[in-house]
Amino acid sequence: MKLKTQQIQQLYTFTRQHYVEWYDLQSELVDHLANAIEQELERNPKCTFDEILNKEFKKFGVFGFMDVVEERQKFLNKKYTRLIWSYYKEFFSLPKIILTMALFIGLHTIIHLVANPNIFPTVVVSFLLVSGFFTFKKRYDFKQKGKETGKKWLFEEIMLNRVSLLLFLLPSAIINIFNTFRDKIEFYDWSLILGEIAFVLVGLLIFIQINIIPKRVAEDLAKTYPEYS
Fold first, then answer.
1. Rounded distance, CA 214 to CA 114, Å?
2. Which of 26, 46, 85, 149 is the most exposed place for a label (fewest CB within 10 A)?
3. pLDDT in tens, 197-219
């Protein structure tokens, strides 16, 4: 016995009421619940939709859908990490390694021409501000899209949270390492070179997460959920 469209929508409402706010995870739970309810209705036609739904929900345990949400977050975090590193490794193999080296040489040359190594922290902070602007713009765009469609996506949220954390932690760490080595290394230029290398490596990681990964995530979501488009 196939469920009616109204009953499917009721399942979506049910998952939202139980703190599942992301449409991609809602869809998986709705599909699971719908199959279980249809099978039970085939076996016991006298049972009502609500009775079977409550029975199936109890199978998720005391915490309801929270365990499912946690497992899904773990899975998507691992998938997201694999995506990042698959693209990141490309920048250390031909031909993109040439671009990576060019970025380092270009940064080092600019700082050398300015003849003021203290400009390096300014470069890092400037990059942080620009990257932060684009990250918050993407977050704003996703929120606006969510308001217009009424759908939020867990993969998008994980993506934005990861890059936001990266922007908060790594640039400040680079500056701290730079300042620490500046006072302890006999040759000041070496501390600057170490800082530049770290900056290029982190800059590439942030660039990948802001510009490359969102497109891949959008493609994955569009393939799995036509509603995403």
1. 36
2. 46
3. 877 888 888 888 888 888 888 88
